[in-house]
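Quick illustration, no need to memorize.
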Amino acid sequence: MHVTKPARALCLASVALSVPAAAQSDTTAVLSMVVTSREDGQGLPYGTIAIRSLGFTRFADEAGHLTIRRLPAGSYTIEAREIGFAPRDTVVALQSGEQRSVTIALARVAIRLARVTVQTQRSRDCTGTGIPEYSSDPDVNEIFHQLKDNIDRVRLLTDQYPLQYSLERVRVSRRPGTFDKVIQHDTTVFDDRKPPYAPGKVVFFDMDHGVKQRMVRLITFADLGDSSFVANHCFAYGGLPFVDRHRMIRIDFTPAKWLRAPDVEGSIFLDADRYVVRRAEFHLSHPERADPPINDFGVTTTFREVAPLITLFETVDSEQPVDGLERTIEHDRLLKFLYVQRSPGQ
């Protein structure tokens, strides 16, 4: 399988901010940063660096470097993040015309998974929505921090590094007692653009080749970072299952109690050793509440790293009821991808 990878950096990653031309020669500064491991001082590949006051977030390059040019003089809070490491914020004051180099060392986190237990008395009513920020168990708390880091990275990839994908798509019709009938087998190209998630509106009607059809909006892992999705779902630690002989950390999510229409529920699976996302399962909640009612609709996505700790989906499997006993089964497999504007580190 041929996959387009980010070009290997030959120099420090560099970004120029847009500021008035008159200010560029008189009042701007250059800030070079490197994100490293506190343990050995080695650069952390593709860590994220954010300066919220500028609305700026980017991936560092494969050596952990990022340079920002034409920064107006002033004080900035730099937020450095990496999966598997504790976040760190650093304040830097820049003078006019200054060139500053900053090293941000992150400490590795250690989650004592053997001490983490599932809450057996968990309520079935989702009222306290959002990814938990605090917990009486620091290890559970850290699991949710790592989940959020994964979501933030996927959202950053989608927002700042738009991609075009080439997929192999196989769609079959399945009915009990008969052989599967292939109804589509082709290669297709698509990008990341799609309408935002809307609570309780994942089942909708739209025109398809001139015919009004009922649709189900496919939820992706990046949707979990949508503020509306988080505000309308509860997240809970679900245990340490083995999936394909690999130990995983499972995190479950359910729609809020006040969402009466069908929405999305499911589970996310992080690698128990490296805390990077490996799998996501989505199901239609309360399909009986659709008008007319439908059977369950499910999507399973697997992920792989295309660069250290940068994940893309590898396969997407979905199953959708058609009518009666017939179901449509679809298997999508990533063939290759292309960064259409910039690659991580730029």
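DSSP finds three helices and 20 strands in the chain.
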